[in-house]
Amino acid sequence: MESVKHLFEEGRWIPGGSSLNSDGVWVWRQDSIEYLAQQPLEVPADFVNYGRAKDYSPPTVDASDTFYDALLRYF
Q1: In the chain, which ranges are continuous DSSP H helix?
Q2: Half-sphere exposure at residue 72, Cβ-oriented, CA atoms within 13 angstroms
Q3: Residue 34: which of 47, 19, 44 has the closest Cα?
Q4: pLDDT of residue 11
Q5: Which residue has the higher pLDDT, 39 or 3?
Q6: Mean pLDDT of 26-46
Q7: Higher pLDDT among residues 64 and 5, named by residue
Q8: Which residues, in sequence order, are CB contacts of 39 under 8 Å at separation 6+?
Q9: d(CA 19, CA 6)
Q10: What is the rounded CA–CA span in Å between residue 43 and residue 73?
Q11: What is the pTM of this model?
Q12: Residue 16 and residue 1 in contact, taking contact as beta carbons nearer than 8 Å
């Protein structure tokens, strides 16, 4: 797990910042969660509406699925 420099706070690092998260439709970096919690950033309306429609619940995960299987579904 790597740490990445915080873009807005000098000398601060975010553990796992470049790690990717996904719900099977959208993909976002781990550090984006940190920035959204602290900065007035605009989130795409489609993303917000999608989350609301899913009641902010994570998708079920197939335990036999690998990261690469999931990644290839985006291409």
Answers
A1: 30-38, 45-53, 67-72
A2: 5
A3: 19
A4: 95
A5: 3
A6: 89
A7: 5
A8: 8
A9: 14
A10: 23
A11: 0.65
A12: yes
Measure the CA–CA gap between 53 and 26, rounded to whole angstroms: 14
Rounded Cα distance between 11 and 30, Å, is: 18
Which residues sit opposite 28 in a β-bridge? 21
C-alpha to C-alpha distances, 65 to 15, 35, 54, 75, nearest whole angstrom: 25, 30, 22, 16
Q: Check residue 19 and give left, alpha or beta (phi > 0: left; psi -120 to 50: alpha).
A: beta
Q: In this structure, what token pair is assigned to residue 71?
A: 């990644």
Encoded amino acid at 23, one letter: D
Residue with tokens 């550090």: 31
Q: What span, in angstroms and rounded, lies between the C-alpha atoms of 20 and 33?
A: 11
Residue showing tokens 């609301």? 52
